[in-house]
Amino acid sequence: MKFLAKALLLLAAATPTALAPDPAFFRYVRPVTPNSQAAQNYLVLDPAIWSHARHDLADVRLYRGSTQVPYVLTEQQSVRSSEQGEAKILNLGLVHGAVEFDLDMRGLSEYDRVTLRLNAKNFVSKAEVEGRHDLGSGQSSQLGNSTLYDFSRENLGSNSTLRFPTSTFPYLHVRLGLGVQPNEVQGATIANVRDSKAAWIAAGSCNSPVQAGRVTNVTCSLSPGVPLGRIQFNVPVDRINFQRRVTVRDARGQSISTGTISRIRLKRGTVEVSSEDLSVNLWGITGPGPVSINIDNGDDPPLAFETIVPQMLERRLYFDPPSTGTLILYYGDPKLEPPVYDYARFFRQDLNAAEARLGPENQNAAYRARPDDRPWSERHNSILWIAMLVAVALLAALALRGMRPASLSERKKF
Predict the structure, then answer these.
(1) Among the four 101, 226, 298, 305, which has the fewest Cβ within 10 Å?
(2) In 10 A of CB 338, how many CB atoms?
(3) How many helices (H) and strands (E) does the chain have?
(4) Across the chain, what does the average pLDDT equal?
(5) Chain Cα centroid distance, residue 83
(6) How far apart are the C-alpha atoms of 269 and 286, rounded to whole Å?
């Protein structure tokens, strides 16, 4: 009985080992034509791959013949690295009716922007920035102009950041135009910011907008399996000075993101303000959707849109192409785990990497289904249950036998 119990436990606990990739077990293939002029190549993974690969792309493999070609997957996200510090405000006052002050910039060795903390509303002011090696009115270098504004009355946002080329001056001299008083300048943060822009590709399509009162409604379908990253709104360039609240809902009607889209072109006196934000970010949504978009126009006329496009972050597969042989991209084996390559551990992106050409998707002519690799207990579940019931019955019989009273002959022995 002990042997039977142990055998049942071993069968129930058996788990499959990690599966090895094999070109015959992938359902889909695509030819890859590398750029032989570059040491490092990359492929842009299009929506078709997402519809047939695992949701995490763990089953994607690149082969030359029967040999794997190591690769690394990347997301083309915007990357911002920054150092920040506080700048001390010196010599704050009015000069010919305008606010002027110096900033002690020795908190950072390099910087490219200053964000002022201003307690001022409903203003537009042009700021001039000079770099100086010493305090006072000595030799200075013009670093440029920035437009500061606050449109609280119009509900169009604000800006209090001075931007200029990367600089190393220990001091800056700032001269503001009208609209800000000395007591409204309350602090300054300095930063050195390095930006790289995100790359986006289409991840579906949207129907034509439909008006319902003050709200514009749009329904969008997504490519199967794609991870939606944002909704991009393209408004004609001559449509300016608007800000609209946007709500995005999933197929169940649940709100999954809110935001605003805006374009500002305002001129106050000789100062012009220009800003634009025409996308709403959202993460964790996969196709096919649909998603619905509600744009609240308030009491203003509805916006006209050239296009509204669901987008996903571009994913790239980087690799070093072999000198010879045909490359094939395989995917569609959902049982595989992500590959582990030394190439990914030591990967450094080459700024001169070239885009390889990804051919059309085809069914793998050599495809065959994987053998059933489930544990014996899962493949023969009914037999396991029968064996367990038999074992329970035997144990019960033995227990009942031990509980029966001794017979008369057995009692006489005592």
Answers:
(1) 298
(2) 13
(3) 6, 31
(4) 87
(5) 23
(6) 48
The amino acid that residue 385 corresponds to is W
Question: CB-based burial of residue 28 (10 Å sphere; 0-12 exposed, 13-18 middle, 19+ buried)?
Answer: buried
Q: What is the pLDDT of residues 44-76, one digit of tens each?
A: 999 999 999 999 999 999 999 999 999 999 998
Three-state DSSP class for residue 304: coil
Compute the distance between CA of residue 71 and CA of residue 58 in angstroms, rounded to an integer. 12
Please tell me the distance from the alpha carbon of residue 227 to that of residue 56, in angstroms, as a whole number: 10
Distance (Å, whole) CA 191 – CA 261: 27
3-state helix, strand, coil in the chain (%, to 5): 15, 45, 40
How far, in whole angstroms, is CA 206 from its chain's centroid? 21
What does pTM read for this prediction?
0.63
Tokens describing residue 204: 């579906």
Q: In this structure, how many other beta carbons lie within 10 angstroms of the beta carbon of residue 372?
A: 8
Q: Decide if pLDDT at 11 tops 50.
A: no
Amino acid at 256: I
Write the CB contacts of 388 (distance below 8 Å, at least 6 apart in sequence).
Answer: 8
